[in-house]
Design a protein that fits this description.
Shape: globular
Distance between the termini: 52 Å
Order of helices and strands: HHHHHHHHHHH
Number of helices: 11
Strand content: under 5%
Number of strands: 0
Largest sheet: none
Number of domains: 1
Radius of gyration: 23 Å
């Protein structure tokens, strides 16, 4: 058991490291080597081809109905294409540090959406967690000024916030669909929808990618290949593997690693400058998400224990009834 848990943690470390480096690599390429929408198109088309290729070798998943395939295609065309476009355009105008801090808000938005539409419970711990998480993001957004690191940080951060809300909606819908279909099927069809949407967008927004023009430059091309193989495809494959044996709180804590990686690399390579608001924002956000996740995990554990006690109580009643009927029969 410990060996499997250690393996799952190692997988999550790898996946989240890729996710953290993703923002740094994309920031380097934008907009000189590739435009934001062209970057999205290349990622989504490559991802769709890769996941359909993976799907050829996986046969044990449940079959999906035509209706489910249409749903998956549409949520990919709207959800994946939408949040990846908002994220990439936003990153082109802000810094990887700000972007990674805001992206960490996704669990907060998931909870707020469920709170509004799914009768989720709000207790004191969750309330404090929401206040700290959103407060940390606001500190980061409203204290950052335009610089040569970020041409329009307010617009970039607002686009990233919109990206996180759309991503949260996408995750909630995926959770519902995954009750009927497999992970590979969902990834295949949703990425196909996203790739088709991105290709259609090239009709209105010209494709611009100097990274493919001759003479080829090694570093930009290497970074693009890294983005395509590891964050785009690798993270999507690794994360479900790592989630199997880890608690919700542990998964949430690994989400903080994305911020650490993106921040440290950005400061080292000169994609941002250190400000006192950075550690304050990160601390508030991490503590806030942790409180929400801990409270949620405790609630799920209590519900599980109550259901278990109810089953035991029902079993005791049935046993008593059988014994009573046996006594009556013997008499």
């Amino acid at each position: 058991m410990r060996k499997e848990t250690a393996k799952s943690n190692l997988i999550m470390l790898t996946a989240k490291t890729f996710s953290g480096l993703n923002s740094n690599a994309i920031k380097y390429l934008l907009p000189l080597w590739i435009s934001p929408f062209s970057c999205v198109t290349v990622r989504l088309v490559f991802g769709a081809l890769a996941f359909w290729l993976v799907g050829i070798f996986i046969r044990h998943e449940p079959k999906s109905s035509i209706k489910d395939k249409i749903y998956m295609f549409l949520i990919g065309a709207i959800g994946i294409f939408g949040y990846m476009s908002l994220y990439t355009v936003g990153l082109s105008k802000t810094t990887p540090v700000s972007s990674s801090i805001i992206i960490a808000l996704i669990p907060i938005w998931v909870f707020l959406i469920l709170l509004c539409f799914h009768k989720e419970r709000l207790d004191l711990m969750k309330g404090i967690g929401l206040f700290l998480g959103l407060g940390g993001a606001c500190i980061n957004i409203f204290t950052k000024k335009p610089s040569h690191y970020a041409s329009d940080p307010m617009l970039g951060d607002m686009l990233t916030v919109a990206c996180t809300i759309l991503s949260a909606i996408y995750l909630i819908i995926c959770r519902i669909i995954l009750q009927r279909v497999g992970v590979v099927a969902l990834t295949k069809w949703s990425f196909l929808g996203a790739a088709c949407a991105s290709l259609i967008s090239t009709i209105f927004i010209p494709f611009d990618a100097k990274v493919f023009e001759e003479p080829l430059h090694f570093l930009p091309l290497a970074l693009l290949i890294f983005i395509l193989i590891f964050p785009t495809v690798g993270s999507y494959i690794l994360q479900p593997m790592g989630l199997k044996r880890l608690k919700t709180t542990v998964v949430a804590m690994w989400g903080y690693w994305v911020i650490v990686v993106a921040t440290v690399v950005a400061l080292i390579v000169g994609q941002d400058e250190f400000r006192w608001t950075i550690p304050v924002s990160i601390a508030c956000l991490c503590i806030g998400i942790y409180l929400v996740e801990v409270s949620e995990s405790k609630l799920k554990k209590d519900c599980h224990e109550i259901k278990h006690e109810e089953k035991d109580f029902d079993k005791d009643i049935k046993d008593d009834r059988k014994n009573f009927e046996k006594d009556i029969h013997d008499r």
